[in-house]
Amino acid sequence: MSDELTTLHDDGVLEIAISLESAGNSLDGDAIVQGTEALHEVMRGQRKARAILLTGKGRNFCAGGNVAHFGAADDRRQFLRGLAHDLNSFVSALYATSLPTVAAVNGWAAGAGMSLALHADFAVGEPGTHLRPAYPGIGLSPDGGMSWLLPRIVGLARARTILMRDEVLDAQTALDLTLLSELVEADQVYPRARTIAADLANGPTGAYAAIRSLLMTASSNTLAEHVVAEAESIADLAITGEGVEGVNAFLAKRAPDFPSARH
């Protein structure tokens, strides 16, 4: 599967472009719909992806929704509800795949672009990267899960300040807040993110899925509940192909071959 918006690479990385320079790097509705379908194909076993890479085609990762389209809509309420539904379907599919996700965050990640950058397990930025909620600037509230995830990353008080003041976060601030994972030179954002995604695709995807699940449920579990979930998870993984290969490789003092263990 390969076109302008989605590419399944030979190493198992599913690359999804969420914005196009031709549209000012605003969130591309077709990209979100096609990306959601691609993720559903992964879940149906029709696409053998093992990691996801989110990119923007142009100078920016994603400058947010196309406000001109908002203004031109005959029924703005219905129009925005539809856009939010499509974005939420994409975010839900990202999590449902249980695959590690990397974002190549060059330039601006504003509005929905910031939401999607937050959902990545690894977000690679550059000195010119800026994050901004952007919603209050046009009198709107967040979508795409921003108001759910941001306080889980930076804490409620800091999230409230960032959102209500519509703060522009420069690259170093975003890194300090762990909204970005690392900074590289501008021309290295995509190569670095691509490398991380390939490394993850080559790793123990079952363990990654379990780690992501445990982290996401930790805040709603008691300690007693969570250690039981951890015990069940590690026991289940111990008898998977990857779990067996990992332990055997350790005992044999060799590098594990996780891709072969999946078959």
UniProtKB/TrEMBL annotation:
Keywords: Fatty acid metabolism, Lipid metabolism. It catalyses: a (3S)-3-hydroxyacyl-CoA = a (2E)-enoyl-CoA + H2O; a 4-saturated-(3S)-3-hydroxyacyl-CoA = a (3E)-enoyl-CoA + H2O. InterPro entries: ClpP/crotonase-like_dom_sf, Enoyl-CoA_hyd/isom_CS, Enoyl-CoA_hydra/iso, Enoyl-CoA_hydra_C. SUPFAM superfamilies: ClpP/crotonase. The keyword Repeat does not apply. It holds the Pfam family ECH_1. The keyword Transferase does not apply. CDD domains: crotonase-like. Could possibly oxidize fatty acids using specific components. Belongs to the enoyl-CoA hydratase/isomerase family. This is Enoyl-CoA hydratase-related protein.
